[in-house]
Specification:
The chain has eleven helices and 34 strands. It is an alpha+beta fold. Bound molecules: MU-OXO-diiron (FEO) and calcium ion (CA) (3 copies). MU-OXO-diiron binds near residues 277 and 367.
Length: about 675
C-alpha cells in the first residue's frame, strides 16, 4: 500500500510539533562570532556545514579533573578493543535486511505473532480481533532489551532470556482488514480495542536450541502483553496530586495504559523502563482554553486515531477526550493526559506486577532513558531526552544510594531532576528543577506573572506541579534548546554520555531559536551526535564538558575539532537523522537512523562506531520504507537483535499482503562477536 495510507503524520520526520516558544537562546550572539571563526563549510555537497569548536574530550577530562578514577578513554581502549573488524556495506534500496559478508540476518517476532493465552494465529487478511491482538506481538517495534533468564540469580545467559520490546504506534491500514472504519462518525469498538492492544510492550521468553536457532518458549509464564489499556500505578511526587484526579482514579494514584513507547532503558536492578514519547497525539479536547499541561505538549482538538469515538462508549475509550465536563475533575477525564508523559517501570521477571509510572523522572516527550553504571553506595543516575524540536536533555539523580542487594524502583521516586545547559565554551551545567533549590526558586519567582513562551505563568503549586510541567520548568531554568534529542548511551569504557540530535529543520529560521554551540547547524536536516563527560567522571556531578562526536550528512561532511577534520564521511558511512544509539558490552557504539531514504542515503540503516577513533562503518541496512530502531545483544555479543519499524513493502514475507514490523536476529557465520 502507498505510504500515505499508513500514518501521514509520521512521513515527516519533523512531525513532532514545535511547542516550545520560550526563546531560550542565551548564547546565540556570542556564538555566532565564534562559529564563524571555527567553522568549515564543504562547498561540494550542499549538506551544509559540519564543524565543531576545539573541545577534544580526552583533553577536557585530563585537564579538568585531577581526581579522575582512571576510566579515561585511553585506559578504556587498552582494556577492551572497540575496533571494527567487518567490511562496511554500501547503501541499499533492497527490500531486505542487508548485513556484511560473513553475517546472517533472520526476521523474528513479527507483529501478530501469538505469545500468550490461547495463542491466536496471525491472519494475513487482517481479521484478527482485538482480543487476538491482546495475545499477540504488537506493531511498530522500537526500543528493546534482552534480560538473561538467570539474571536474578547473578547469571549471564546468552542462550535464553526475556526479550522486552516497545510498540510505538500503529499502521491502521495494515492492522485491520480494510483500514480504520467509521460508522455514522463513530469507530467500531473492536477496532479501537485492537489498536490499543497493538500498542505497549511485549515480554517474550526466548531460547536458542542446540542448532543456535532462537524461538519463543510457548506457555512460559513470563510471556506478557502490556498495552494502552493495562492498569498502572502512579509513583513519585505526582502520585495523588489533584491534577491527576480522574473518574477512574479519584485519588490520582492510578491510570490505564502506556502509549507511544519509543525507546527504553534497562535499570541496574533488572527491570525495564518504557518511555512515553508522542502521547499528546492520542488525546483531544473541545476546550477553547487549554491548561498549560496540555498547551506545552500540543494536545489539541483532534486525536490521532479517534479512540474517544468508540461506538460502545466504554469508559476505557471515551477517556481520550479530555474536554472538561460540568462537574469536577473526578467526574470526567480532563486530567487523563496528565497521567501520560512518564517513564514506566515494568518488571519482566514478575508477570503479575503492575507497571509503575515514575513521575520523579519528569513529564515530557520521553524518547528513552539511559542509566549510568550503578555504583554501590552512590546515587542512581539516568538521562532522558525530550524528542521535539527545541526541547531539552534531562538527568535524574536519586536521593537514596544504590545497594545491589536492596535496589528497586523506589530509588526512582525521590531525587533531583536536572536539565542541561550547554555553554558555548564547551562547558555545561545541570540546572536543578527543584523548588527547594534557591536558584531555581528565585527564577520561578521572577517568572511568576510573566509570559513564558505562550504561557501566562502564575507559579507552581508544589514540586508535583513542577514535574507535571517539566518542560515549562526547564524553560524557566534557562536550559539549552536542542535539535530533537533522541537516544542516549553511556560508554562503558570511558563513562562519556552520548546523545543523538536527530535533526531540526527549524533551527535558526526566522521566528525560531538561533543556533547555539551545541546545535550549530542552521536548518539542521541531517542531525549530529553530541557527547559529554561529567566533572570528575562522576555521573551525579552538576557540571560537564561536551563536544560533538560526529555531524551526519552526505559524502564529504566533516566534523572539525581544533581545525582538524576528525571525521570525513564517505560511501562507507554517510547517514542522516541518527536516532537509536547503544553501546554494546564491549564498547562499540551502534547508531541507527530514522531519516530521509532518498539518495544518497537510501534505506535507513545502522552503523557501528569506534568511540576512541571516531571510525564509523555501515553495518546494516533495513528494508524499504522502514526506520531501524532498537538494538541489543546477548551478553556474549554473539546474537544481536535489531528492530525494523514501519516497513512499507511486503516484508519480511514477500507473499504477505501486509508489511509486518519485526525483530531481525543478526549472527556471525563463524559464531564470533558481532562487530569485531
Ligand atoms: Fe519515537 Fe523520537 O522517536
Ligand atoms: Ca492532537
Ligand atoms: Ca526514535
Ligand atoms: Ca526519529
Amino acid at each position: 500500500m502507498a505510504k500515505h495510507d499508513l500514518d501521514p503524520n509520521y512521513l515527516d520526520p519533523n512531525y513532532e510539533p514545535v511547542v516550545n516558544h520560550s526563546e531560550n537562546t542565551p548564547f546565540h550572539q556570542v556564538l555566532a562570532a565564534r562559529m564563524q571563526r571555527r567553522s568549515v563549510m564543504k562547498g561540494t555537497v550542499g549538506a551544509a556545514l559540519a564543524s565543531v569548536m576545539g573541545l577534544g574530550l580526552a583533553g577536557c577530562g585530563g585537564d579538568s579533573d585531577g581526581d579522575s578514577t582512571g576510566t579515561s578513554s585511553d585506559t578504556g581502549a587498552d582494556a577492551v578493543s572497540t575496533e571494527l573488524g567487518f567490511k562496511a556495506i554500501p547503501v541499499s534500496t533492497a527490500n531486505q535486511a542487508v548485513v556484511p559478508e560473513g553475517y546472517s540476518a533472520t526476521a523474528f517476532l513479527p507483529w501478530g505473532t501469538p505469545i500468550t493465552g490461547s495463542y491466536p494465529e496471525y491472519r494475513p487478511d487482517g481479521t484478527n480481533t482485538g482480543a487476538d491482538q491482546e495475545q499477540q506481538i504488537g506493531m511498530h517495534h522500537d526500543g528493546m532489551h534482552f534480560f538473561p533468564i538467570d539474571l536474578k540469580a547473578g547469571g549471564n545467559s546468552s542462550t535464553e532470556g526475556l526479550l522486552v520490546m516497545n510498540h510505538e504506534y500503529i499502521n491502521q491500514g495494515a492492522l485491520h482488514a480494510n483500514g480504520a472504519t467509521y460508522v455514522d462518525g463513530m469507530r467500531p469498538s473492536d477496532e479501537v480495542r485492537k489498536e490499543i492492544a497493538a500498542h505497549g510492550v511485549s515480554v517474550v521468553h526466548i531460547k536458542q536450541d542446540a542448532n543456535g536457532i532462537w524461538d519463543i518458549v510457548f506457555g512460559s509464564p513470563f510471556n506478557r502483553r502490556i498495552t494502552g489499556g493495562t492498569e498502572m500505578e502512579i509513583r513519585g511526587p505526582a502520585r495523588g496530586y489533584h491534577k491527576l484526579f480522574t473518574r477512574f482514579s479519584p485519588n490520582g494514584n492510578r491510570t490505564r495504559g502506556t502509549l507511544n513507547n519509543c525507546s527504553m532503558g534497562p535499570t541496574p536492578w533488572g527491570t525495564y523502563l518504557a518511555a512515553e514519547e508522542n502521547w499528546h497525539g492520542y488525546f483531544r479536547t473541545s476546550a477553547e482554553v487549554r491548561p498549560r499541561e496540555q498547551v506545552r505538549h500540543g494536545v489539541d482538538n483532534t486525536s490521532r486515531y479517534d479512540w474517544e469515538l468508540a461506538d460502545n462508549r466504554a469508559d476505557a475509550y471515551v477517556r481520550f477526550d479530555v474536554t472538561p465536563g460540568a462537574g469536577t475533575a473526578t467526574d470526567d477525564y480532563r486530567n487523563e493526559a496528565n497521567t501520560y508523559g512518564y517513564m514506566v517501570e515494568i518488571d519482566p521477571f514478575n508477570p503479575e506486577s503492575t507497571p509503575q509510572k515514575r513521575t520523579a523522572l519528569g513529564r515530557f516527550g520521553h524518547e528513552g532513558v539511559i542509566f549510568a553504571p550503578a555504583k554501590e553506595g552512590q546515587p542512581v543516575v539516568c538521562y532522558s531526552g525530550d524528542d521535539s524540536r527545541f526541547e531539552y536533555i534531562y538527568k535524574f539523580v536519586s536521593s537514596k544510594p544504590y545497594y545491589a542487594a536492596t535496589a528497586g524502583g523506589y530509588l526512582l521516586d525521590e531525587g533531583t531532576l536536572y536539565v542541561a545547559r550547554f555553554n558555548d565554551d564547551g562547558s555545561g551545567e545541570w540546572l536543578p528543577l527543584d523548588l527547594d533549590d534557591a536558584d531555581f526558586a528565585a527564577k520561578v519567582t521572577a517568572a511568576t506573572g510573566t509570559t513564558v513562551g505562550d504561557i501566562a505563568f502564575d507559579g507552581f503549586e508544589n514540586q508535583a506541579d513542577v514535574l507535571v510541567n517539566t518542560r515549562l520548568a526547564a524553560d524557566i531554568a534557562g536550559a539549552t534548546t536542542m535539535d530533537r534529542p533522541e537516544w542516549g548511551a553511556v560508554d562503558p569504557n570511558s563513562g562519556e554520555v552520548y546523545f543523538t540530535l536527530t535533526n531540526n529543520s527549524s533551527r535558526g529560521r526566522e521566528g525560531y531559536d538561533d543556533t547555539n554551540a551545541a546545535n550549530p547547524i542552521v536548518e539542521n536536516r541531517t542531525g549530529h551526535i553530541i557527547r559529554w563527560k561529567e566533572a570528575g567522571n562522576d555521573h551525579a556531578a552538576t557540571s560537564f564538558e561536551w563536544d560533538i562526536f560526529v555531524f551526519a550528512g552526505e559524502q564529504g561532511t566533516e566534523t572539525v575539532v581544533d581545525g582538524e577534520a576528525v571525521v570525513t564521511l564517505d560511501d562507507d558511512n554517510i547517514f542522516n537523522s541518527p536516532d537509536g544509539l547503544w553501546f554494546d558490552y564491549n564498547g562499540r557504539l551502534w547508531i541507527q537512523t530514522d531519516g530521509s531514504d532518498a539518495a544518497p542515503y537510501q534505506n535507513n540503516m545502522m552503523l557501528a562506531a569506534n568511540p576512541e577513533t571516531r571510525e564509523i562503518k555501515r553495518f546494516f541496512v533495513g528494508p524499504v520504507g522502514c526506520e531501524v530502531t532498537g538494538v541489543v545483544t546477548t551478553p556474549d555479543v554473539r546474537t544481536m537483535f535489531v528492530n525494523i519499524q514501519h516497513p512499507d513493502g511486503h516484508w519480511p514475507d514477500s507473499s504477505d499482503p501486509r508489511p509486518r514490523d519485526a525483530t531481525v536476529i543478526v549472527t556471525r557465520d563463524d559464531g564470533g562477536v558481532i562487530g569485531a
